[in-house]
Known about the structure:
Distance between the termini: 69 Å
Mean pLDDT: 91
Amino acid sequence: MTNGLGLEATDGATLGRIKRLKGGKARLGMAALMWISYAERPLEASELCYALAVETGLPNLNIDNVPSINTLLVCCQGLVVVDKETSTVRLIHFTLQQYLRTRPDLFGTAHATIAETCLTYLNSPQVKAVSTRPSPNLQDTPFFQYSSVYWGVHAKRDFSDCAKQLALKLFDDYNRHISTKILMKSWGMWRIDVNRFSGFSGLHCASFFGIVEIVTALVQRECCDINETDSRGHTPLMWATRNGHERVVKILLGRDDVNPNKPDNARRTPLWPAAHDGHEGVVKMLLERDDVNPDKPDNAGRTPLWWAANNGHEGVVKRLLARHDVNPDKPDNHGQTPLWRTAGNGHEAVVKILLARPDVNPDKPDNHGQTPLWRAAGNGHEGVVKILLARHDVNPDKPDNHG
Length: 403
């Protein structure tokens, strides 16, 4: 049967057989289907087996509970297979995941359950004992990478009191937990050297994931340092603005002792990543503060407007230009202005916005003598070239420093 109704009937019948299995096999089969359906990425067979061995809330991981992949396949009654090339587990056909997700009665609060499992695993003595040396041996903890990187993603989607307690327990000594380095390495954060990265607290982590309930609990603690920085100089507010978590940003900005303009080691303030990644709602909140400098450049001389223009974030550019204390023609250390960058990247809408300003020089060259027109033409952006050539103050024949 290849039609949707036929597959749905077949899947329903197979699920019925799984539920009728005895000796804990039914629970194992349904749990495996839940994990495969709701995981953030394909799971390796060993990862899934270890995940299913975790007993939520119990302090120790019992290795004897880890089922074999063959046992799991039997329990899933043919609905799950192992991909030979990647060693990952997957459902037998793609429509099965859609079917399973339309049946909330099957798994209940799946994301909360996964978050609780990940946190229980990370809190286990076996995982806490993993060395933080540059190349830790993770062979005996195959579920470590997934739980470190994705527990917060699942918790944010479906939060529970159990997950809250487990997270707060993890955060008691989070800075020295190897999962912090795994998290940073997996997300590729701003070229962070994970072997030298430190100072990443529980509040940093909760702000990074945008988990409102945990951030609220942490900032209410007397010992909370709202402006605490990690080894890169990033505050919790910086991590929240970078990932666009508006509700967390609002909580952090609500603290009287927060410094919303605190720069990191590269002199980037919390406004910088929000503008860089186009989080307009976060930018709006920050610009409403009198103690935020909207035009502060980083070590490379690049302002929030420079990056918003470079990445074509039209809404953010408009909000920044609405401020009287933002210089729309401010070059970076290489002499590249916001217009120069956005013209070179072909963002026509942002080019028009900048050119509408009388204080923007449309023909301003960078340190190599290359004008916005030179850059746009070199990159083949025909629309931007037409816009610039329509200006009387653009020299279409202006040479760079090499003629």
